[in-house]
Amino acid sequence: MRPSANQLAMRDNALAALMGAMSGSDFGRDHAFGEDYEDEFGLEAPPAAPHVRPAPPGHMAVHAPRHPAFHPNNHHHVMALWNERHHRHTRRRSREILLDPNEGSETKVERYSFSLSFALVLGTPVGIFTTQNPETTIRPQRVIMNAPAPGFVTVTDLKVANVSVVIGDVEDAYNYNANAVGSMLDMPTLEPANRATMLGNYTGFTPFPYTLTQAYTFTVSFQGPSTMAG
């Protein structure tokens, strides 16, 4: 059965116009393929690039300067700037911490030296007993004794907060001279309420260049981190 003009028009508008079934006044207009079916064929025009300004009627499109965010090397540039800034900040903080290592800390800690002393007369043997409590809490890590030579002073006991850190028999104080190696001991924290005590003997030995009857102050120093005094 031959289709009617209306049926033909419903099937194909262009063919119907060609056959005279529809007005062909628009037939042959410059349509892009699928123009009437953009949504179905996915032929919608893409949005204008962010750097292109829409042109007013009768004018050409104006290209605005490209935003840095669209620059292909922008990420690397930003990271380089961040790394440089971070390096400068780290360097500055490392220098500032030398001036105030306790900045931002509620507990202020410094390295102090807490000392005991005993007056000697060279050439005259005498027993040594010296004791003292610190003015602030300190955690001793090293003991230094100013014995000028071996056999000058012997140590029988060294107590820190009532704990003996010298065990066994008599020890030579010269083992703890300022140039001694490995003279660090594990000692308890010493608070103002506790004391450090040294027991020993001066042997009467008078090493060169010291002379007999010369006054000499024997010292025992405890060095380590301490809460800030004052």
List its salient traits:
alpha+beta; 230 residues; 10 strands; 19% helix; 4 helices; single chain; Jelly Rolls; five-stranded antiparallel sheet; 26% strand; three-stranded antiparallel sheet; 2 domains
Can you describe what's shown?
By secondary structure, the chain is an alpha+beta fold. The protein folds into two domains: 5-50, no CATH class; 109-227, Jelly Rolls (Sandwich). The protein has four helices and ten strands. The protein has helices at residues 5-11, 13-19, 38-41, 74-99; strands spanning 52-53, 62-63, 109-121, 126-132, 142-145, 153-160, 163-164, 171-172, 196-202, 215-227. Strands 4, 6, 7, 8 and 9 form a five-stranded antiparallel β-sheet that branches. It has a three-stranded antiparallel β-sheet with strand order 3-10-5, with no helix packed on it. The chain has a two-stranded antiparallel ribbon with strand order 1-2. Strand 1 (52-53) and strand 2 (62-63) form a beta hairpin. It is elongated and about 115 Å long. The protein starts with a helix and ends with a strand. Residues 21-46 have low confidence and may be disordered.
Topology:
Blueprint: H1 5-11, H2 13-19, H3 38-41, E1 52-53, E2 62-63, H4 74-99, E3 109-121, E4 126-132, E5 142-145, E6 153-160, E7 163-164, E8 171-172, E9 196-202, E10 215-227
Antiparallel strand pairs: 1-2, 3-10, 4-9, 5-10, 6-7, 6-8, 6-9
Brief synopsis:
This protein is of the alpha+beta class and 230 residues long.
The CATH topology of the largest domain is what?
Jelly Rolls
User: What is the CATH class of the largest domain?
Assistant: Mainly Beta
Largest sheet: 5 strands, antiparallel
Tell me roughly what share of residues is in helical segments: 10-25%
